[in-house]
């Protein structure tokens, strides 16, 4: 048999196999990547509609849909702090039509739960970051503390007396407080709530003195005079609150804590699709019109390559894992 005839026979057999698999609903990855997208793309948000992560997702969904010529559908799958959505996406075909929009919760959960049913690093492909939600250190206006250094001095003088609220045990606002206590060398009493709204309401009423609040929650109270903002947890000053210092420059060198959202794909998603989505995502986030829209919702565009986000996610998992271990934090 000549090489030409052998090659012809092999191609014929391969074509027959492909046709047979196609009849069963399977599409070769290379073919899927070549004409992607040719139908709606599912963006799975792990939280209810109207929240910060959902809002950021909707800001980028529209320009992405316009770029792709296909709908970018927001699919809210709330439950178990983000676990329900991650379990759903990890079992979807890695064909570029389903993406998870994780949040800081997904970097915290591996250190709190051993029953996730997925590995956020091993079972997903990093696509890129989407938004950053600054964490704002706020105090009740009648507390009598006007700066980060004054808060530190007060907490050192009266260990365990200062109370700080959070949206719940093991959440980003809780761990931001634990990180502050560790780095500032102070002891504060944690008061967990079921969500940010009741937590910051009690800070505004004076039931609790301090909160490391996500910006969307803080914004609604900063104008009423009951809450005073002292600093932000960003690595640099936030464009949302440009007059506020960072916690780092205000007295706790090296402090950095903020919430975020991003995009992941199921493991095995073609690299060319991931690169295309990342490029389109960065283009959408760089649009000068999207910044003010995000700012109104307490968010900032957060751009990264897939490689940069992979490093960021690894660092977040390590960082919060150490805080959880040192503070002996457990969830029921």
Give an overview of the whole structure:
The structure is a single chain. This protein has helices spanning 3-23, 29-34, 52-68, 83-90, 105-112, 148-157, 172-184, 196-205, 215-222, 247-250, 271-286, 290-296, 306-326, and strands at 41-45, 72-76, 98-100, 124-140, 163-166, 189-192, 210-214, 227-232, 258-266, 300-301. By secondary structure, the protein is of the alpha/beta class. It folds into two domains: 11-132 and 260-326, D-Maltodextrin-Binding Protein, domain 2 (3-Layer(aba) Sandwich), CATH 3.40.190; 134-258, 3-Layer(aba) Sandwich (D-Maltodextrin-Binding Protein, domain 2), CATH 3.40.190.10. The strands form two sheets. Strands 4, 5, 6, 7, 8, 9 and 10 form a seven-stranded mixed beta sheet that branches. Helix 3 (52-68) links the parallel strand 1 and strand 2. Helix 3 crosses helix 11 (271-286) and helix 5 crosses helix 13 (306-326). The radius of gyration is 23 Å and the shape is globular.
């Amino acid at each position: 048999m000549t090489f030409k005839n052998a090659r012809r026979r092999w191609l014929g057999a391969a074509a027959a196999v492909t046709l047979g698999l196609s009849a069963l609903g399977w599409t070769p990855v290379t073919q899927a990547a070549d004409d992607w997208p040719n139908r709606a793309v599912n963006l799975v948000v792990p939280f209810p509609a109207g929240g910060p992560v959902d809002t950021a997702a909707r800001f980028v969904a529209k320009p992405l849909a316009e770029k792709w010529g296909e709908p970018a559908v927001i699919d809210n799958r709330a439950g178990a702090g983000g676990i329900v959505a991650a379990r759903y996406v990890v079992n979807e075909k890695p064909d570029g039509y389903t993406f998870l929009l994780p949040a800081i919760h997904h970097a915290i959960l591996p250190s709190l739960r051993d029953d996730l049913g997925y590995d956020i690093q091993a079972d997903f492909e990093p696509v890129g970051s989407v938004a950053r939600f600054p964490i704002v250190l706020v105090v009740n206006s009648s507390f009598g503390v006007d700066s980060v250094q004054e808060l530190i001095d007060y907490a050192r003088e009266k260990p365990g007396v200062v109370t700080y609220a959070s949206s719940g045990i093991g959440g980003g606002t809780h761990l931001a407080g634990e990180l502050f206590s560790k780095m500032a060398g102070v002891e504060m009493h944690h008061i967990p709530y079921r969500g940010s709204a009741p937590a910051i309401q009690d800070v505004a009423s004076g039931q609790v003195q301090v909160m490391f609040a996500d910006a969307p929650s803080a914004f609604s109270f900063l104008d009423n005079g009951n809450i005073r903002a002292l600093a932000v947890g960003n690595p640099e000053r936030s464009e949302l609150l440009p007059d506020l210092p960072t916690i780092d420059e205000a007295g706790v060198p090296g402090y950095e804590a903020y919430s975020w959202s991003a995009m992941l794909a199921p493991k095995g998603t073609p690299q060319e699709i991931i690169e295309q989505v990342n490029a389109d995502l960065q283009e959408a986030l760089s649009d000068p019109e999207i910044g003010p829209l995000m700012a109104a919702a307490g968010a900032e565009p957060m751009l990264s390559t897939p490689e940069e986000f992979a490093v960021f996610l690894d660092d977040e998992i390590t960082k919060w894992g150490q805080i959880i271990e040192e503070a002996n934090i457990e969830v029921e």
